[in-house]
C-alpha cells in the first residue's frame, strides 16, 4: 500500500494557483491530476476541518479518515502549527504541534535570559531574536521547517501524514520582502484591524495585502517544489489542497469568516500526485475527501 501525504495549504485560494505565482505546483498539477472545481466544506478552519476529517459538520475521531486508514494498517500523523487545529488532535497516532513547541522553546530561552542578563539587554535580545510570544502580528512557523521535519522523521509505512502549512495565512512576513520588519508589523496590524472591522482600508492597502499574500504563496511553492522533488511518487501519493480560501473585501469582509459560501472563500485547489494524469471540471466537495483518500489507500485513484 502506498503512503499518503496530504498537504493543507491554509487559506490558499484556487485562483492563486497560477504558472506565475506557483510555478512548481503548477507544473506538478500539469504532470498529474487536478480537480478544477474543488469546494471546501466551509470558509474557516474550525468548520472546514470536521468535513475533511469526518466527512460531516461534526468532528468525531472514532468516525474519521484516521480510523478508516487505521483499519487498513496505516499509521497517522498530524503536523501543524495552527492553534485552531489543536482541537482536532484526538484520533491520531502522532500529533506534532509546531506552534506549541516554538512557544515552549521561546519561553525556556526567555527564562534563561532573565536569569543571566539585565532587563535592558534582555529586551534588546528579545526584539532581535523574535522571542516574543506568538501574537496576531507574528508569523507562524514556515513550510520549510515542517518539510525539514518530514525529511528527518519517517513514520512506519504505510503512513498517512496530514501536513498543515500556514504560509498563505495572515499575517504575511515573506522572507524575501524588501519591506522592513517594522513596516510589515504595521501592515499586518492594519490588516488585522480590517478583519475585526475596526478600520475601512483603502484600495492601496488592500493591494499591498494581496501582494504579500501572493509572495507568501510563492515562497511556500518554492519550498514545496524542492521537497516534492525528493518524494518517491511510486511509494507515496501526495494530495495538495486547502481548508478554505481568503477574502480581501470582495464581499465586504477580510480574512475568512465562517459559513460564508462565496468563491473566494470556498473554491480551493486539489491536486493529486503519483496516481494518474489528467484533470476534471466536475465539482468535487471536501465532504468526499475522506472517501477519496480511502479509495486511494485501497485501490488507487483511477481519475
Ligand atoms: Zn484555515
Question: Can you describe what's shown?
Answer:
The chain has 303 residues and is an alpha/beta fold. The protein has one domain (3-98, 142-171, 204-298): Alkaline Phosphatase, subunit A (3-Layer(aba) Sandwich), CATH 3.40.720. Helices cover 40% and strands 17% of the residues. It is built from ten helices and eleven strands. The chain has helices at residues 23-31, 45-54, 65-71, 98-116, 119-128, 143-152, 181-195, 203-229, 263-266, 289-298; strands at residues 3-9, 33-39, 75-80, 94-97, 159-165, 236-241, 247-248, 254-255, 267-273, 278-280, 284-285. Strands 1, 2, 3, 4, 5, 6, 9, 10 and 11 form a nine-stranded mixed sheet that branches. A two-stranded antiparallel sheet has the order 7-8. Helix 6 packs parallel to helix 8 (203-229). The longest helix has 27 residues, at 203-229. The chain starts with a strand and ends in a 5-residue tail after the last helix. The model is unreliable at 131-136 (pLDDT under 50). The structure holds zinc ion. The site of zinc ion has 5 residues, from loops. Residues 10-11, 45, 243-244 line the site of zinc ion (ZN).
Whole-number tally of structural domains = 1
CATH class: Alpha Beta
CATH superfamily descriptor = Alkaline Phosphatase, subunit A
Strand % is 15-25%
CA radius of gyration = 20 Å
SSE series = EHEHHEEHHHEHHEEEHEEEH
CATH architecture: 3-Layer(aba) Sandwich
Q: How would you describe the shape?
A: globular
How much helical structure, as a percent, in the residues? 25-40%
Bound compounds, each kind once, are:
zinc ion
| Secondary structure category | alpha/beta
| Number of β-strand runs | 11
The separation of the N and C termini measures 18 Å
The average pLDDT score comes to: 91
Helix count, DSSP H or I runs of 4 or more residues = 10
Largest sheet data: 9 strands, mixed
CATH fold assignment? Alkaline Phosphatase, subunit A
